[in-house]
Design a protein that fits this description.
Helices cover 64% and strands 0% of the residues. By secondary structure, it is mostly helical.
């Protein structure tokens, strides 16, 4: 389409094609189809629409908890109320109180599938488009369009939301809108979006430590005066947003006990360490090392503490990296000319230093989100197989800006493919085998990734080859062998044994990449950028004025956190998303991204050859 001058039609065509694919996935089975008495997630979502339109708000979290009692935050309930009202207007029998339980008429299924599609189009799709326009703003339109296609057809999310049946795209879309807002310096707007994400589904807490660390880091970065002002504003907006969300459960509308009941439903610690066979640390070690539930029977509180401790240790590097980078940036002594720019009132010439500018640690945010969400998935309490969607989102965002042959692309493709594979037992139970295979092959084709290729020249290549062979063999065995009666969960357990090590390595890789990006930006003590700044402070103050005049301050391929007055936010955002992965995994020697070389030459020409970027 780019070659035939149809560039303007790429985005609408991609969105239309993705809607068609999503609808086709919905033609298959879903969670709990024809399996009374409890059915599944489809019936749970329908039942919440039923109870919210018939019962007072104060009874939403207490009514008949044995049959799909509401256990999601209030925003889900409010959205269910809207959908229930619209559905009842079309056909009241779909949501009649109690008598509609288990209803699976064609009309009701059509309506329920349509609600997922509409909410996805209203929240998630605009968030994806905004992401490509903000985080990839320094890239070509072709790269932005390719990234959009990569994200629109993400197989894991499509199979769960439009096949299995859930509304994860709303929660992920609100989180992505928050990240987009942070990227353009709208921190208060981003805070509201993230509170809405938490208010829709509590699993958004997987991102909370990093979002909090980024915003706190920006307060540190701005200094005592502006930082304190931003902190107060963020605190006020966040608290106010939560109060608005929970208002019907607070005095004077309800007794304070109603809030406690809703929170106890949202965080059900009594359910156990993990459910089914999920590919995380607890289930993996439960199979290979120690039967946790048996050993700690009656001592579940100890398991909760151990889970919390491991989870915190897992995301500590991401949080520490963001805070340390902000401290390093703020504690540097700028040159007099740069200090004047920082202290001066916000004007068109000094807006880069105002509180509406993202911090230099913004490029760390995608990696930190991946580290934190993967830590929660691997180590936290009460994990479902579907929660792998949360770490897959930042991994897919990183992949969308990379090109084949880069390390970021290799890890991103492997992690997302294995993420879909880890949900195979669930998708098989729902009768989504054809959709599973079709979406995996379609997405791999769209991104230019061949899962059948032999990759033997790097560690991630060898790992990918071994894992893909294991996946294929496991699927073949499942076709021809019936598991023995003694081991009915044989194949789900083997799936866990294949998937968990990959997720663990992706988690470690995200920590490694976060350190590398910090080092490249001058965010670590003893870095070359840090040493260079000490001798070139005055020179850089003048160079900033020169680059600003030439319009190049947003395309520096290797920015420095220490550079006074120069933030280069758009360029560093692109860098964090695979703009310069720093390593070629295809086996070539001396590889350097040609886009990076081009930008270096551009910077050299603009600076008269004084700096090479």
């Amino acid at each position: 389409m780019h070659k035939h001058n149809l560039k303007a039609w790429v985005v609408p065509s991609a969105i239309a094609a993705s809607i068609w694919v999503k609808w086709c996935i919905g033609l298959g089975g879903y969670s709990g189809h024809a399996t009374p008495p409890m059915f599944g997630d489809y019936e749970a979502q329908r039942h919440w629409m039923e109870l919210t339109i018939h019962l007072p708000i104060q009874q939403w979290y207490t009514y008949d908890l044995r049959y799909w009692g509401l256990d999601y935050p209030p925003l889900t309930a409010y959205v269910s109320w809207i959908c229930g009202r619209v559905g009842s207007w079309i056909d009241p029998s779909w949501f009649a109180l109690e008598t509609s339980r288990g209803i699976e008429t064609p009309g009701n299924k059509l309506f329920m599938r349509a609600t997922v599609l509409v909410l996805d189009a209203l929240v998630f799709v605009p968030a994806l488009y905004a992401f490509t326009r903000t985080w990839l703003s320094t890239r070509s339109s072709r790269t932005q369009h390719a990234a959009l296609v990569t994200l629109l057809f993400h197989p894991a999310l499509l199979l769960i939301d439009f096949g299995h049946f859930q509304y994860n795209s709303v929660m992920l879309g609100l989180t992505l809108l928050a990240i987009d807002a942070f990227a353009v310096g709208l921190d208060l707007v981003g805070a509201v979006f993230f509170v809405l994400s938490l208010g829709f589904k509590q699993m958004a807490l997987y991102y909370a430590p990093v979002v909090g660390a980024y915003l706190l880091g920006k307060c540190i970065y701005l200094g005592p005066k502006n930082g304190t002002r931003l902190f107060i504003r963020l605190a006020f907006v966040t608290v106010l947003s939560f109060i608005v969300l929970f208002a019907p459960f607070l005095p004077p509308f309800a007794p304070i006990s109603a809030l406690g009941v809703s929170i106890s439903r949202i965080f059900p610690f009594a359910r156990g360490l993990f459910e089914d066979k999920v590919a995380n640390f607890w289930c993996f070690t439960n199979v290979t090392v120690l039967k946790w539930k048996r050993v700690f029977n009656g001592k579940e509180a100890l398991l909760i503490r151990a889970s919390a401790a491991l989870t915190a240790l897992g995301f500590l590097p991401a949080v520490a990296g963001l805070l340390w980078g902000s401290c390093k940036t703020r504690l540097r002594s700028p040159s007099p000319s740069a200090k004047e720019q920082i202290d001066a009132p916000a004007t068109p010439m000094t807006h880069l230093n105002s509180s509406t500018t993202p911090t230099p640690t913004l490029p760390l945010l995608p990696y930190a989100l991946l580290t934190t969400s993967m830590s929660f998935f691997l180590f936290s309490f009460q994990v479902h197989e579907k929660t792998i969607l949360l770490p897959l989102l930042p991994l897919a965002l990183l992949l969308s800006g990379a090109t084949p042959g880069e390390e970021v692309f290799a890890w991103g493709a492997l992690g997302n493919v294995v993420g879909v594979f880890s949900m195979w037992p669930l998708l098989k139970k729902d009768g989504l085998g054809v959709q599973y295979l079709a979406m995996l092959l379609l997405w791999c084709r769209l991104i230019g990734y061949n899962p059948f290729a032999m990759r033997l020249r790097s560690f991630v290549g060898l790992l990918s080859t071994a894992v893909h062979i294991s996946m294929g063999l496991l699927h073949l065995l499942e076709l021809v062998i019936v598991p023995p009666t003694r081991y009915p969960d044989l194949f789900p357990v083997l799936n866990v044994l294949v998937s968990t090590p990959v997720f663990g390595l992706v988690w470690l890789w995200s920590i490694k990449r976060g350190i590398e990006v910090s080092w490249a930006m001058g965010g670590l003590t003893g870095s070359r950028a840090d040493a260079k700044d000490k001798g070139k402070e005055k020179e850089q103050g003048g160079e900033w004025e020169k680059e600003k005049a030439n319009g190049l301050s947003t395309v520096d391929p290797v920015p420095s956190l220490s550079r006074p007055g120069v933030r280069n936010d758009a360029g560093t955002r692109a860098k964090s998303l695979g703009f310069a992965s720093g390593q070629d995994v295809s086996g070539g020697r001396g590889y350097r991204d040609p886009r990076r070389r081009a930008l270096e030459r551009l910077s050299m020409r603009a600076g008269g050859g004084e700096e090479g970027g």
